[in-house]
Amino acid sequence: MGSGTDADLNALTDNQQGLLKVLADADGETLTGVEVRERLENDYNICLTKNGMNAVFRRTSNYPRHMVDITLKKPSTHDVEVQHATHRLKKPYIDTVRTQLQR
After folding, report:
1. Half-sphere exposure of residue 102: CA atoms within 13 angstroms, side-chain side
2. What is the 3-class SS of the chain, one letter each residue?
3. Edge to edge, what strands does the sheet with 68-73 contain?
4. Which residue has the higher pLDDT, 4 or 17?
5. Which domains are present in the chain?
6. Per-residue pLDDT averaged across 3-24, rounded?
7. Which of 20, 54, 94, 99 has a CA that sits 20 to 30 A from residue 27's CA?
8. φ and ψ at residue 31, rounded to 5 degrees
């Protein structure tokens, strides 16, 4: 999928659309991956594991990564080396997602 704003979001998979809807519902708020997965299940009946969610926006998919800020953060604990991702739909795309992917 190109980086233009005229992308047809309806051509995405149900999981990809659900992820964008959750982020649009958050209205620009940053969500952790856990929060995104919980909202996907509660609001859209889409159950994804962490690996399943990673597959939604992998580089070879059509997921419009240009629309979303994804940040990897390591926790400040010394016991575990785990990365946590946060996701935020960029403000200019919130209305686009809402318009194209109405419930």
Report:
1. 1
2. CCCCCCCCHHHCCHHHHHHHHHHHHCCCCCEEHHHHHHHHHHHHCCCCCHHHHHHHCCCCCCCCHHHEEEEEECCCCCCCCCCEEEEEECHHHHHHHHHHCCC
3. 31-32, 84-89, 68-73
4. 17
5. 11-100 (1.10.10.10)
6. 85
7. 54
8. -120, 145
**Structure-block tokens of residue 38:** 């919980």
pLDDT band at 87 (very low <50, low <70, confident <90, very high): very high
> Which residues touch 60 (CB under 8 Å, ≥6 apart)?
none
pTM: 0.83
Among the listed residues 13, 1, 5, the one whose alpha carbon sits nearest the alpha carbon of residue 94: 5
